[in-house]
Every structure is written in structure tokens, then in C-alpha cells.
Design goal:
cell projection; 17 helices; 3% strand; two-stranded antiparallel ribbon; 469 residues; two-stranded antiparallel sheet; AA_transpt_TM; Sodium/glucose cotransporter; mainly alpha; transmembrane
């Protein structure tokens, strides 16, 4: 059988000879601060994608589902039982879907094609930079969570292979958690994170999606036909307080956060209409809700208040069906880390180029060196933090708060701040459309004199407080 290798071409690791290609790969939202003209906007409209409605539904579902579902049984326990968990999810789902629709409307109205660009166009420079920083911190924290998940699952698998008793520490250095996480990260994650493109991961990503569904199926089956040695703890029926209910919100936000990737998905549709998009996200969120609710309810009822933050850790190490689920989760995380890192690296690259004040095309000569340096620093920092923060629940509580920014805060800012346009003179006697988010845009005051565009300082302060959680 022929072997298929990934990234075996040295050219994939080096610098492309096509400066235009490199510029597009380096392009981060809002590097070009000049507003788009009507002609440019019409050209962009001709470049619409070919994603069907059904395809868009599954893309959004895949963006939602991931390793975050492992924490949902613990979220039900934190919320105070099944009734409180379901009520909280259903209530938040209204705002989650509304936020996705608001993003699509703002993207269509501003002719922007990514989450960051929409924030820049509608809310201005300050909120746009804050959004990009939030995305970078969120992706960084999620990468830490992924490494912790790898360690959790490897501990259980190694315990079976080494025939160590349940709960016993590693007896050898090569089975130590810190060593296994580091070895896996250096062998698999780092090589997958350095290349410029991540398109080659689409096949492995398909397997990770299958693995996510398999994990949900196993948790439901184990609840219906439980093993004799599994005894549930106390089954809570009501929350201790309303504060306890809201403590489960970060986990739910982390699980349902697909808003950053939703704008490109909307613009890739054959018919990018807000009404059609509303049906797409509603169907996708219902599917994701079924998966998360099935995992959360069955996992919580299986173990009760004794459920671990990572539900798979609550199952015996010897269970082979669960061991396969752990292997699928590891595969999912191995393919998800480079994707999240790619997004964070693109944001950092855009911030750096904008700070330097140089166009992308003039800076591609140092792209490879900068990309490798950014990847190594990102990788080493996330690895070190994952080695010394073994509790996945603490990490999710932080990045879940950041996910709330993408779900509630930034769409809310865009909802209260309408997109205003004005015609300004262009070259050759022509005119072009200028949006309220452009730096040179001037709003008219009541007296008719121009004034600076508002920057929503109150909302920016709220975002800063959420980041500091």
C-alpha cells in the first residue's frame, strides 16, 4: 500500500516564490485600512463561494462541535441538574442564533468577509483592535486546553497499556504526564503548525468530526447500559443558587462558539442572504444542541455530582469502547490545535504589520523567519502552561468568558451601532462609498459639522473586563 506523507515537500516549509500568493496567505483582516470602492465591492461580490445551504449547515455544526463537549456533564452538575442545564442552554441559544444573524447582516451591509473586518467596519479602530487581541488570547487559551486534554486521555490509555492500578501515579519517567504531553506535542503538533497552509488537514478533520459523534454515542450508550462498577454520585435536581447556574455559562459559550468562523462561512454560500443564513444557523444550532444535550444529560446522570470536568476521565481505564473514544479525542485535538494556532498567528501577523505601517507585499521577504519564530514562541508557551495547569475546568472557565465576547459583546456592539455610509470624492472625478468604521469617516453633528466616529468606550471597557476574568 502506498504511503501518504504530509508536508514531505521541503517547499511547503519554505518561502513561496509567488509574492502574490504569500501576500494573500499573510493577509490579516484590516491590514489595508483604505476603504473599498464600489468597483472593488462589486468584484468581491462576484467572488462568492459555492457552498450549498446543506453544506453550510454542516460546516457550522463542525465548527461548533469539538473537545468542549467533554465538559458539558460537569456544566450540568455546576448548573444544578438537568432542568437547570436545559433551561440555561435553551435561553442562551436564542442569543447565540441572534448573534450569528447579526454578524451576517453586518457583513452584508459592510461588504466585509471576516469577523475582524466586520468589527473594524462597524465599530472603528479601537474596538477592532480589541477584537483581534481577544481572538488571539482566545485561540491561545484554547490551545492550552487542547494540550491538557491530550494529557488527560493519554494518562488513561497508558494506565491500561502499562497495567497500572486505577489512580496510581506513573512509575516510570516515560509514562509521566509531562513527558508524554511534550513528546506528542513535539512529534505531531509542532510539525503541523509551522506550514503556511492548513488545507491538508481536511481529511484528518473529517475523522475528528466522526470521533466527536462517537464520543457522544458512547456516553449515551453507557448511560442506558451502565457498567456494574460505575456508581453515580448525588444527582442534583435544583441549583444551590442562581449564581451556580451562571457558573456553567463559560462552558456553554466555549461549546457553542462558532461566531468567528461564521462570517467566512456566510460569505462562501452560493446565496449569502440573511434570511437563508437564519435557517442555516438555526438548523446547525439545533443539531449541536442535540449533541451537547445528549452528552451533558447522559454524562451527568451516569456519574452525578462526582463527574469529572473531563467526563471521559470518569470512566474506567479498562473500558475498550471508551478507550477508542479517548483515541478519537486525541486525534481531534491534534488536528484542531494547528487550526486554532493558524487563526491566532494570522491575527498577530496583522497586528504586527499594521503596527509597522507597511503593506503585506513589501514585507513577505521576512515572512518565513517571522512565521517560524511566532510558531515556536506560541507552541512553547502553551506547552509550558499546559504542563503546570492540569485542570481543564479552570482553563475553560477563562476561555469561555472570552467566547462570550464573540457571542454577546461584539455582536451587541454592532447591533447598537448602525453602519453608516457616505459618498466621498474618488480619483478621476468618481465617488466611492466610505463606511462609518473607516478612520477618515466623519459623522455629521446636529449643526452639520463633522465629528469623529464614536468608539463605544463603555462597550470596550466591558470587553476589557471580560478579558481580565
Amino acid at each position: 500500500m502506498a504511503q501518504v506523507s504530509i508536508n514531505n515537500d521541503l517547499g511547503e516549509w519554505g518561502l513561496s516564490t509567488d509574492s502574490g500568493e504569500r501576500a494573500r496567505l499573510l493577509q490579516s483582516p484590516c491590514v489595508d485600512t483604505a476603504p473599498k470602492s464600489e468597483g472593488e465591492a462589486s468584484l468581491e461580490s462576484l467572488g462568492r463561494g459555492t457552498t450549498s445551504t446543506i453544506g453550510a449547515i454542516f460546516i457550522v455544526v463542525n465548527a461548533c462541535l469539538g473537545a468542549g463537549l467533554l465538559n458539558f456533564p460537569a456544566a450540568f452538575s455546576t448548573a444544578g441538574g438537568v432542568a437547570a442545564g436545559i433551561t440555561l442552554q435553551m435561553g442562551m441559544l436564542v442569543f447565540i442564533i441572534s448573534g450569528l444573524v447579526i454578524l451576517a447582516y453586518c457583513s452584508q451591509a459592510s461588504n466585509e468577509r471576516t469577523y475582524q473586518e466586520v468589527v473594524w467596519a462597524v465599530c472603528g479602530k479601537l474596538t477592532g483592535v480589541l477584537c483581534e487581541v481577544t481572538i488571539a488570547i482566545y485561540t491561545f487559551g484554547t490551545c492550552i486546553a487542547f494540550l491538557i486534554i491530550i494529557g488527560d486521555q493519554q494518562d488513561k490509555i497508558i494506565a491500561v497499556m502499562a497495567k497500572e492500578p486505577e489512580g496510581a501515579g506513573s512509575s516510570s519517567w516515560y509514562t509521566d504526564r509531562k513527558f508524554t504531553i511534550s513528546l506528542t506535542a513535539f512529534l505531531f503538533i509542532l510539525p503541523l503548525s509551522i506550514p503556511r497552509e492548513i488545507g491538508f488537514q481536511k481529511y484528518a478533520s473529517f475523522l475528528s468530526v466522526v470521533g466527536t459523534w462517537y464520543v457522544t454515542a458512547i456516553i449515551i450508550i453507557k448511560y442506558i447500559w451502565p457498567d456494574k462498577e460505575m456508581t453515580p454520585g448525588d444527582i442534583l435536581t435544583r441549583p444551590a443558587s442562581w449564581v451556580a447556574v451562571f457558573n456553567a455559562m463559560p462552558t456553554i459559550c466555549f461549546g457553542f462558539q462558532c461566531h468567528v468562523s461564521s462570517v467566512p462561512v456566510f460569505n462562501s454560500m452560493r446565496q449569502p442572504k440573511v434570511k437563508t443564513w437564519g435557517g442555516v444557523v438555526t438548523a446547525a444550532m439545533v443539531i449541536a444542541l442535540a449533541v451537547y444535550m445528549g452528552t451533558g444529560i447522559c454524562g451527568f446522570l451516569t456519574f452525578g455530582a462526582a463527574v469529572d470536568p473531563d467526563v471521559l476521565l470518569s470512566y474506567p481505564s479498562e473500558d475498550m469502547a471508551v478507550a477508542v473514544a479517548r483515541a478519537f479525542i486525541i486525534l481531534s485535538v491534534l488536528t484542531s490545535y494547528p487550526i486554532l494556532h493558524f487563526c491566532g498567528r494570522a491575527v498577530i501577523e496583522g497586528l504586527w504589520l499594521r503596527y509597522q505601517g507597511m503593506p503585506v507585499e513589501e514585507d513577505v521577504g521576512r515572512e518565513r523567519r517571522r512565521r517560524v519564530l511566532q510558531t515556536l514562541v506560541w507552541f512553547l508557551l502553551t506547552l509550558l502552561l499546559a504542563l503546570f495547569i492540569p485542570d481543564i475546568g479552570k482553563v475553560i472557565s477563562v476561555i469561555g468568558g472570552l467566547a462570550a465576547c464573540f457571542i454577546f459583546v461584539f455582536p451587541g456592539i454592532r447591533l447598537v451601532q448602525p453602519i453608516t455610509t457616505q459618498r466621498v470624492p474618488g480619483s478621476g472625478g468618481s465617488t466611492r462609498i466610505q463606511k462609518s468604521g473607516d478612520p477618515s469617516f466623519r459623522h455629521k453633528s446636529a449643526t452639520g459639522s463633522p465629528r469623529s466616529a464614536p468608539t463605544c468606550p463603555a462597550m470596550s471597557s466591558a470587553c476589557t473586563q471580560l478579558i481580565s476574568l
